Amino acid sequence: MPCPVKFHSRNEAETKEIGRRLGEKLKPGDVVCLYGELGAGKTTMVKGIASAVGINERDITSASFTIIAEHNGTVPFYHIDLYRVEPREVDGIGLYEYLGRDGISVIEWAERAEKEIPDGSIKVRFNYTGEDSREIEIEGIEL
Amino acid sequence: MLILGIDTSCDDTSASVVEDGAKIISNIVSTQDEIHKKYGGIVPELASRRHIEMILPVVDEALNKAKLRFKDISAIAVCQGPGLIGSLLVGVCFAKSISYFNKLPLVAVNHLEGHIFSSFLEDPLPEFPFIALIVSGGHTNIYRVNSFGLYKEISRTRDDAAGEAFDKVAKLLGLGYPGGPLIDALSEKGNPETIHFPRPFVDKSFDFSFSGLKTSVLNYVKKNPNAKKEDVAASFQLAIIDVIVTKTIEAAKKEHINGIVLGGGVSANKALRRRMEEIAHKEKIKVYLLPPYLCTDNAAMIAAAGFYHFKEKDFANFDLNPKAYLPL
Predict the structure, then answer these.
(1) Which of A36, B22, B179, B284 has an alpha carbon within 20 to 30 A of B5's alpha carbon?
(2) What pLDDT digit, counting tens, does each position of B9-37 carry?
(3) CB pair distance less than 8 Å for A65 and B137
């Protein structure tokens, strides 16, 4: 297992760029879990990841409302946002229908579905270091 | 011509009978706010289960209240999406079943199209072309509506929808759910000039972005834990409304259109309505405001839009599937 790598992002554009670099390394079946509080830059990173697999980043918006948004890039892309999901309600949303299959899944607020997350998933942790700056730690993939 | 509309896109089960896309005969909405309140948001699995329990009584009541039976109905209109997939599934399956059993044509309606056509349920009727602002928990979209079926998307949100920003800010202020009405009410007691939150104007496009605004509120509250909630709420609300109103009016001016229709739950926000009317008045643009029960999700709007699909003979088959993500 590769060591965790730490990045320092000074703004949204840099977070997106880190996402794009990560996205370029992903292959179908990969699951990326994003951990970080409100406003940490999770959706911004999803935009970056999605842009690496041929999806217009404008099409990626917050998925809090519908929980799962499916997009068709060079591979199927599942943007999952568990912000509104209670950990004990996770069973009901059918995550297993998406994770580790034909597409790439990116999960925001992944801590709410810890039991459903397959082994070997890529983990991305965001920490506030200032109003706009963040420390982003990526674990489980060679970048 | 009578259309039975069904909407189960999110957390409300609704059925309605509408005549000729314009006159509401009955409109039943069973809300689930009480169920989801304690979670601070909608729990999808609970929502779908509740829809299963409510769909039959709600449809029954819509027909009973209209003193009608299935034989009097010309078609069934159902919301196909966007929305929560489990919730949509209940409405779509139910609509297919009653359409098959009663040999009634089925039409599929996009929820956003429904919100646009809400405005045809209330006098005065807007004249084509008009600008439609759909602003809700899941959407913040501006369309140019040239006629039925001819919609041009002018803008959308790049991250959070306006209603979502209201909900998230309400949650971080510890106000509860749903956030929109709570912030609207609290703001009446606060001073909106206290804090100047950034107005997120995305480059020069008409697109919205509210994620950064939410983060600024979070940063402010962290730094100023003793700030008056009333003032934070009012200042946040003014910032978000400023952006929505400015972009909508600018879009109308650029398209040379003098009518704006508002739809979606956030369009019931009192401060937004006041501000939109005030600025539009200066620009000689007419604003079509709906009563709150037509702003929020309802099946009358689905029946209204369904009427136009029916006239165009745009019928759905029994292989109709709901779609969580369904751009108009």
Answers:
(1) B179
(2) 988 999 999 999 999 999 999 987 777 76
(3) yes
